[in-house]
Specification:
Distance between the termini: 19 Å
Number of helices: 9
Oligomer: single chain
Number of domains: 1
Shape: globular
Largest sheet: none
Order of helices and strands: HHHHHHHHH
Bound molecules: zinc ion
Radius of gyration: 17 Å
Strand content: under 5%
Length: 223
């Protein structure tokens, strides 16, 4: 069920973009700010307590910092696509392999902490929608063939369910669940704070954005 929702969030966003060809990014920006706040709060409410219940808190902190580093590294290649930004150009009509690999690694790690015991799945779902919309707008408007675009989105949609599946079904990966969840925390801390910082236009006071952020925190608290 969770896997289906995750795949649907990405594919649904893609087909919505194909059908509606959105021009205005304003609403997406608010959704993006909400998703950043919501994901950040769920990371604090759900994942951080979970990881620190395990022994050796300092080791877990090391893995969280490694997760931040991993995300910094991935964004050299993806140029911020994970936090809903396309700072890059696709010049030729070739499958954007580097972008794909960096996004897929990110999405795989993201799948690890999903479990019945926490509600991080909702944070990931809400985060995926604006990211998938912005990625789809970018791919649809690029010179990439429609077939390759579809392949890109389809494989990308499968990555988070795959990460989640491996973390529960594969015994080697399941044994590393706590450190890998700590890595995912680092990834979430990085992308959600970048979303919150970047969605401010020149640090101008933005009431709508502030309300949306508070709403994100609040819903995460009560969920
Ligand atoms: Zn960015
Ligand atoms: Zn993500």
């Amino acid at each position: 069920m969770h896997y289906f929702l995750l795949i649907f969030a990405v594919l649904g966003s893609f087909f919505l973009v194909l059908r509606t060809k959105p021009k205005h990014q304003e609403n997406i920006k608010l959704l993006l700010a909400f998703s950043g706040a919501f994901l950040l709060a769920l990371t604090f409410f759900e994942l951080i307590p979970e990881v620190y219940q395990a022994k050796s808190p300092k080791i877990n902190s090391v893995f969280i910092l490694l997760g931040i580093l991993l995300q910094v590294f991935l964004e050299f290649f993806s140029k911020g696509a994970e936090h809903g930004h396309m700072h890059l150009e696709l010049p030729e009509n070739r499958f954007p392999l580097v972008l794909f690999i960096s996004l897929s690694l990110h999405a795989l790690v993201e799948g690890v902490p999903i479990s019945e015991e926490n509600t991080i799945i909702y944070g990931i779902l809400v985060h995926k929608i604006p990211v998938a919309v912005i990625l789809s707008v970018f791919l649809v408007n690029s010179k990439l063939k429609r077939r390759l675009t579809l392949l890109f989105i389809l494989l990308f949609a499968l990555m988070t369910p795959l990460g989640s599946y491996l973390a529960t079904e594969n015994s080697t990966i399941a044994a590393l669940k706590t450190p890998l969840t700590a890595v995912a925390i680092g990834v979430f801390l990085h992308i959600s704070t970048v979303i919150l910082f970047e969605s401010a236009k020149a640090h101008a006071f933005d009431l709508k954005k502030l309300l949306v952020v508070i709403l994100g925190f609040g819903i995460a608290y009560f969920i």
